[in-house]
Amino acid sequence: MSNLYEKRNQIVIPFLIAAFIGLFNETALNMAFVEIGRDFGIEPSTVQWLTTGYLLVLGIFVPVSAFLMQRFTTRQLFTAALSFSILGTLIAALAPTFAVLLIARIVQALGTAIIIPLMTTVILMVYPIEKRGAAMGKIGLVIVFAPAIGPTFAGVILQEFTWHFIFWVTIPFLLIAIFVGIRFIENVSEVQPTKLDVVSFILSTIGFGGVVYGFSISGDLGTFLAKEVYIAVGLGLVSLVLFTIRQLKMETPMLNLKVFKYPMFTLALFIVLAAMMMLLSVMVLLPIYMQRVLLLVPMIAGLLMLPGGVINALMSVVAGNLFDKFGPRAMVPTGLGLAIISLFFLTTIDTETTSIFIIIMHILLLIGISFIMMPAQTNGLNELPRELYMDGTAIMNTLQQVAGAIGTAVAVTIMSITAAKNPDPYLGLVDGVQNSIIFGLVLAVLAFIISFFIKRVSTVQMK
């Protein structure tokens, strides 16, 4: 352990670079939705599949990460993840049609599905519990800053180039990450001769995939009350129930659901999921609002989101260090309080809203998110025994991506339904964005109430 801790920086840095690019890709295209829709002659509800489909694949394949981390070495998984990311990014950069672009996003997502839970597990293995707050703060910088900064860089790129260049600029960083990783990453866990339970994988895929797909097609249909939505979500929920029953009966389950016996993990999971839904829904809504309501060009819209992203990066590291000193009880409710204030004021945006108002509320929201995500997640994972680290990180990351996909889809659907009811499409879009943000506000209030039940997991409990 001490040897790994001494080499922590050279082990972790390649993961941070790779994860940053993977999560950057989640939201970078949001700023290009209008241009992509125009290029391919498709509606926003179809274009949003570039984000929803990406998250859908993460929700399907992240559950397998616990099995992969037992079956393959850290170096093998890192190399495979980066290979998928590079290939998918290259295909996207060259994509001549929407179908090819969507396929490229799926390939990209396969890489991210491996790298995110692998990085979290490596952090837990390399750092002792009393130093994990600061270490997870670095992950927080990546997990929150990367999606937050994506629209800004995309907006700058779109000012001079086409959306294809959003992918071209990330390829050099992925190449650097894979070369550095191959040189320095060490194996942090022992390989076990584990076999993948095919039935569990199929149930998991249908379960998570069905739920996300059901919510996602509601955007295309313009309603939640459709037969196709009921069938997809219903089939998904039934499959998840069967998946759960199977895992509880298996001697070596694909995902060990015993993690839910630990109350702080379960509590943290709900709060993190609510924060992810809030974050990604706003990351989709604001670029659409600024370009189609305020009529800002992509570069200006992106720059308006830059201050929030930069401050969030700094606060994620600060929050990690504060967690080691003060724990989650003060930090998480404070963060949710800031998110509630921000979302409440964002529900008032209209055609007369000023740019400075958007900047301030965006900054406030991202400061709040930085105080929520990593402190809650770190405290929850700290309660788990070492043998459940891989399962805990797999479940936490799986459900984060599923929640993000559902949050994005629900936000777009609410916006579409509301806009369709107004004869003035311009004002209808304003009402739609406002109603979608109310959805995030409700989640924030629920999470705020639950956050008061958090208790700090101490080092003594872990021994």
In a nutshell, what does this entry contain?
This protein is mostly helical and 463 residues long. It is 80% helix and 0% strand.
Task: Summarize model confidence as the mean pLDDT.
Answer: 83
DSSP, total strands: 0
Q: What's the N-to-C terminus distance? A: 15 Å
Helical segment count: 21
Radius of gyration: 21 Å
Low-confidence stretches: 459-463
What share of the residues lie within helices?
over 70%
Could you state the order of secondary-structure elements as H and E? HHHHHHHHHHHHHHHHHHHHH
Rough outline: globular
How would a textbook summarize the main sheet? none
- Percent of residues in beta strands? under 5%
- Estimated structural class: mainly alpha
Verbal overview:
The chain is an all-alpha fold. 80% of the residues lie in helices and 0% in strands. It contains 21 helices and no strands. It has helices at residues 2-6, 8-27, 33-40, 44-47, 49-61, 65-71, 74-94, 98-126, 132-160, 165-168, 171-184, 198-221, 227-249, 263-292, 298-304, 306-326, 328-346, 355-382, 389-421, 425-451, 459-462. Helix 12 runs antiparallel to helix 13 (227-249). Mean pLDDT is 83; it is low at 459-463.
